[in-house]
Amino acid sequence: MNMPHSKVTCDALSWLADFSVSRELKATAWPRLKTAVAFGSGLNEFGCQGASHMPDSQSSAIRHSRLALRVGLGFVWIYEGLVPKLLVALTTLEKDVVAASGLIPNGIVDPFLHILGVLEILLGVLVVSGIWQRPICLVQAAIVGAFTIVIPFTSAAILAHPFGLLSKNIPVLGAIVALWLLSAASLASRDNDSTTDKFNEETVKL
Fold first, then answer.
1. Which residue of 46, 50, 80, 97 pairs with 38 in a disulfide if CB–CB is 3.0 to 4.6 A?
2. pTM of this prediction?
3. Dihedral angle over CA of 17, 18, 22, 28, nearest 10
4. Residue 43 forms beta bridges with which residues?
């Protein structure tokens, strides 16, 4: 049974091997060997973990997960902007929450909610499209986080609403964080693939 090597041991062995191999060998067979082992099997020549391509099944799972999260979050934004703010009459609860914040004058509460609805729809479309995925995640997190923090101080009664108008923000924030992490993982995978392709091209030239 092979015992796992520490990172320090792996780095030391790699350096020692590089130092000891002749220049002529390093210029021909040695780079090919290192590249083939490191990027083909995911391990370097000493059995230590190296850079590797993400398995196709894992990459596909990440893509599908990101799509599901984008569609789910986008639906929430589009629905919240379209139905309660544009298609049906504004509820007293929504008006009271906005008025209680003290940020919007009473005379423009209705127009403000209509404009907010349009902006929520646009945000939902951007979320579903996947454009600027990570910046859009930050925007979503900022909006939901601000509502979750501010509203309890201005309209404490909403905390006891039977439909959980505020508590649903917590799982929404969780979905936003998950989308952020998956987007970061996908970006890292693309960077690894790009690095691998570059190494392979340099190896072919030798």
1. 50
2. 0.65
3. 110
4. 49
